[in-house]
Design a protein that fits this description.
Elements: H1 2-7, H2 14-21, H3 25-31, H4 35-54, H5 66-81, H6 85-96, H7 98-125, H8 130-157, H9 163-172
Length: about 180
């Protein structure tokens, strides 16, 4: 992550990663055959950390509102990643390389499933029946993922982006 933050995803070579890690090339290549595999592993580790935050939310009393859950997720994500521009670089690289789309889309689909589980509980908590809560969770989860992606894009691309304002606006959205 330090290499990607310093030089960018595309400009970072496996030699850079090997040097930064202090491991031998053989040690690195025994785990990862290329940079894409390594970044997938790192991305999945970050998602697992965030999944741990989202796991069990549906059992909390009181159930935290969606805006608080999104904020917790994004705070944790930016803490784990360090430089959110790395995610934008990964998305751009995946868009340009069809073989990488599957890797990135898998992570997004895992995130969506985590939000679906939480949202199903949230909508049930708000009085919807089990079937309707499930249908609404499936419909709303892609929007929640997009809110997270939009935050990351704006924090990277908009110089005067107001993160606190973004989160305050989330509190105004009722789901």
């Amino acid at each position: 992550m330090l290499c990607f933050a310093r030089a960018g995803f595309e400009a970072t070579s496996m030699a850079d990663i090997i040097t930064e890690s202090g491991l031998s090339a053989g040690a690195i290549y025994s785990y990862f055959k290329n940079k894409q595999e390594l970044i997938l592993h790192v991305t999945q580790d970050v998602l697992e950390n965030r999944a741990a935050d989202l796991e069990g939310l549906e059992k909390q009393t009181p159930l935290p509102p969606p805006a608080a859950v999104i904020r917790m997720f994004l705070d944790g994500m930016t803490h784990d990643i360090g430089n959110p521009s790395i995610l934008v670089q990964i998305w751009a690289a995946a868009a340009a390389a069809p073989e990488s789309v599957e890797m990135v889309s898998g992570v997004v689909l895992e995130l969506r499933a985590l939000y679906e589980r939480y949202l199903r509980a949230w909508f049930a908590h708000r009085g919807l029946g089990e079937k309707e809560a499930g249908e609404r969770a499936v419909a709303v989860a892609p929007l929640v993922v997009a809110l997270c992606q939009g935050y990351i894009l704006q924090i990277v691309l908009v110089p005067d982006f107001d993160a606190d304002g973004y989160f305050a606006a989330l509190d105004l959205v009722t789901m």
